[in-house]
Amino acid sequence: MEESKQNKLIIKQLSSKNTEEVLFTINKLRNTGNKTLIPYLINLLATHSSSKVKESIAGLLYDVKYQTAAEEIIKAIKSEQYSGIREELLTICWQSSLDFSSYIETLTDCFIRGDFKVAFEAFTVIDSIEKKLNAEFAENSINALKSKANTIDESKKELLIELVHIFEHKEKL
Asked: What pTM was computed for the model?
């Protein structure tokens, strides 16, 4: 019950029109940690007008140590509501120390469906978790990539070839 009151207070502070108060609260969260506020922080990243606030939130999310945060980040990546920050969310994936290897199908889908920037960030995440990839998931991703190879944007073709190579290498290990 006490945590709920505390979360309400933190959310109120994060919702402030005063950018300095929002930045102060984000910094406070960095020191105290609160995994239940990850969805709210992602929403704030998508909706806040201040670039300083957005940078501060991204920095905080880079440093999150709760593995459960990975699931919240992936939920946001899948959501059309957050399509405008999908690139930033994928950057958070590879910048953080969280393990995203069990979300390889979502990352592959982002590569296939996204524009070049989103595809590049998805590629970077996959490349950074290559050693942790499950061979069965790697095979599924190869099949998905090969089935879309003819329809994929020309700007992503070289990345596609390299991504298939990463997955095929995993299959052989």
From this structure: 0.91
